[in-house]
Amino acid sequence: MTESIRAEIERKLSTIPVRASRQMTSTEYQFRVAEITRLFDIDAVGSERGIIYGDKGVELEDQPLLWAVRVLVARRFGIPEAI
Q1: What is the β-pairing status of strands 50-53 and 44-47?
Q2: Cβ-contact 25, 80 below 8 angstroms
Q3: CA–CA distance, 32 with 34 (Å, rounded to integer)
Q4: Which residues are 45's β-sheet partners?
Q5: Alpha-carbon torsion 72, 1, 33, 23, what sign?
């Protein structure tokens, strides 16, 4: 995914009001992102070392979605230091 696509996603997401809740640990963050990713039928499992995707990995067309999920979760729960 190119930087211009990431910038466009950031710009669009900045218009969505998100109330910060609490700071998550890195592991909690990985599990939360994986949970949300599975809602979109993307095979993902959170672990202490990151998110593990299924056999095929992440399709190119799904990468903007994953970036948006990561940004929104980070805005809602704070960005863990180890990410």
Answers
A1: antiparallel
A2: yes
A3: 5
A4: 52
A5: negative
